[in-house]
Amino acid sequence: MSLKSKCELLQAIQTRYLKANKADKPKMLDEFTGATGIIANIRPD
To answer: What is the pTM of this model?
Structure first.
């Protein structure tokens, strides 16, 4: 996945992530990291 594609995906997910409840945020991070290969060092509890 190119850097441009990763940025586009991040922008698409960002709005949903900011509105998501605490239980849904880890699922969204897992989806993003799985699609991009980027490792999330910090996960919300």
So the answer is: 0.67
